Amino acid sequence: MTGLTAELVVDGRAPRTPALAPNGQLLCYILAPLSRTGDHLDTELRLVDTDGATASRRATADTSTESRPRWSADSGTLFFLSDRADRGTSQVHRLTLADGAATAVTHWRAGISDHLPLADPNLVALLAQDEPTERDARRARDRDDAIVVGEREPRDRLRLLDLRTGQVTTPAVFGDRHVVELRQRPDGGPLAVLTQASGDKDYGPRTGQLHLFDPATGATVDLGPVGVDAHSLAWWPGEDGWHLGYLALTPPVLHAGTAVFVLTVHSRVVRNRTADLPMCPTELHQTDTAPLVVFADGLNTTLARLDPTGPTTVSRHPGRLADLTTTPTGEKVAALTGTRYQPPNVHLGPATGPLRKITNTRPELDGVTLGTQRPLAYRAADGLDLDGLLVLPAGQSASDGPFPLVTIAHGGPYDRFADRFQLFWFPSAQWLATAGYAVFLPNPRGGQGHGHQFAASVAGRVGQEEWTDILTGIDLLTAEGVADPDRLGIAGGSHGGFMAAWAVGQTDRFRAALVLAGVIDWGMLAATGEYGQLDAALGGSTGWSGVGPHPHDAVSPISFASRVHTPVLILHGAEDTNVPLGQSVYFHRALRHFGVEHEFVIYPREGHSIRERPHQLDVLRRTRAWFDRWLRP
C-alpha cells in the first residue's frame, strides 16, 4: 500500500466534458491537469471507442488549452476550442475523423467563447465578443483606458460561421444583450437563445430572456423573461407542439432550489415541472424525444426522463454523476462518475444503467491507503431528516475511537457532499483521514439534494438552523464515541469558510479552525462580491437598507469577532472576485485587534479557486500542519 502525498493529490489529471458522437461509436473528452504549472492550463482532447476495443487516444498533438468538444450531426467531424495559435485566445477548430487533421476555422481576434455546429453542415453558431477596432487599438497604445462602467462592457453576441467561405457574420438581433446559451431544435429548426442584459454576474442572471432565431432566414421571436440564472436549454416535441425547458432558481427568493421550467412555445405558458420533489435538478439534456434530467438526490444521483406527467426515474447512481452526454435517442449515455474510493472517470452505458468505466485517468492512486467512508443519516433538532458522510482515519474502525474530528462544511450553500471520492486540493476528508483524523461532512439545510424548501430555508437565516444541523451531527458522533470532544476542528471554503468563521464566534468547542475564502460580512459581500444580490438574499439585507443595524449584521461572523478564542488559519486568493480578499483582511484585522491566535495567508494571482501547483501544495501541507499543531500536539 502507498502513502498519500500532497504531490499525488495535485499532480493528477481529470476528465472533463465528455461528448458522445451522435452515432454512439466514439466519445470525446478533455483531459485536464488538476493544477497549473505555467501561465496556461494545457489540456488534451482525447477520443475513445465506445465498444471498448481500444484505449483512449489523444486526438491532437499541440500544446494548448482545448475545450468544448461538439460533434457534427453526421458524427464525422469534431469541433472544439483551442488557443494553440495565440495562447489565451480560443478559436474553433475542426477535426475530420477521415484524415485526423485538425485545423482552425475561425480567426476572430476577440476569441470564441462557445460554439454549436448546426443541422446545416455548412454552419456553426458562435458566441463571441466584438473584435477590437482601430480606435480600441489606439486607445490601448495611448493608455487611454479609463473604464466607464456600463460602457463598452464585454458581451457575447450570436454570430454565424460559414464553413464554405470561412466568413463570420453577426446577425443584427437581440440588441445589446449578452448571449449566454444556444440550443437548436432537434429537427433542425430554429435556435433557442438565452440572453441577459449584461455579462455582470450580479445583474445579468436576474434579467434573462428567451428568444428564437432562425439561422436560415434571420427571423427572431421573443418568448419573454425566464427565471433567475436560467441555463441548460432543451427542446422536445409534445402533442401540443414544441416545448422548451431550462433550469432556473425557484421564485420568489433569489436563493432557492433549482427547478425544471417548461415553456409551451405556441401558448407561451410556463410551468414548474419539478415542484415539491425531494431532490434537485442539476442538468437538463435534449434528446429527440423527452429530455433527460439529472437530479441530486440526497447523497446520490437519480437520472429521470421528463414525461408529460412529470419526471420518471430511469436509473439511480451512487454518489455524484455529472456532465451527462447522450446520443440523440437518449438510449446511450456517458457521464463523469466514480465511487467512494475512486475519482471520477468517464462511464458509458444505457440510460437505464448500469454504466461501465471506459477511462482510468488516475492509476497512480491505486494502492493508496484511504479512510473508510460511510453515509450518515440523522435528524435535526426540529426533526428534519439530514444526511452526511463520515470518513474514519485510514486503517481504523469506529471502535478504535474517539478520534480527533475535523468537520468540513461545504460551499454554496446550494451544494452538497455526495457519497463520492473525497480527495481534493482544498480541505478534504481523505487528505485528513490519511493523517489520522476522523472527518465529518454534513449536509445541513440550505444545500442541494432535498428539494426547494430545504434549500430556500436559509435565505436571510444563514448560520441559524444550518449551524445547529451541523452541531447536532457533531454531538451524535461524540455520543457514539467516534469524536473526541477535546479535539474538534472545523474547516470550509467559500460558504463553508463562512460556517467555520461563524462557528468559532458561537462556541469555544473547536480547538482549531480553517477559513478558506470565507464570507465574514454579508453586507460587504453584497456590495463588492460578483454575485451581490444573490448574496444579499442569503444575508438578508444590504448596507443601503437604511440606518443599521441591518439583518445581515446579525448573521455576519465579523459581528462576533470579540467572542473568538479558537486559533484560525485564514487562506485567500488575492484576485478573488466571488468572495473578495477584503473579507479575510477584515477578519484578520479583527482577530489581531482581539489578540486571537491566527495565521493569514494570501495567494497571489489566485481567484476563488487556487489553481497554481505550488499554492495547492501549500494549502494541503498547511492544512495538515495547522490541525496537527492544535488537535494532535
TrEMBL record:
It comes from the Bacteria. Residues 429-631 form the Peptidase S9 prolyl oligopeptidase catalytic domain. The keyword Protease applies. SUPFAM superfamilies: alpha/beta-Hydrolases, DPP6 N-terminal domain-like. The keyword Protease applies. Coiled coil: none annotated. Keywords: Aminopeptidase, Hydrolase, Protease, Serine protease. GO terms for biological process: proteolysis. One of its GO terms (molecular function) is aminopeptidase activity. InterPro entries: 6-blade_b-propeller_TolB-like, AB_hydrolase_fold, Peptidase_S9_cat, WD40. PANTHER family: DIPEPTIDYL PEPTIDASE FAMILY MEMBER 6, SERINE PEPTIDASE S9 FAMILY MEMBER. This is Dipeptidyl aminopeptidase/acylaminoacyl peptidase.
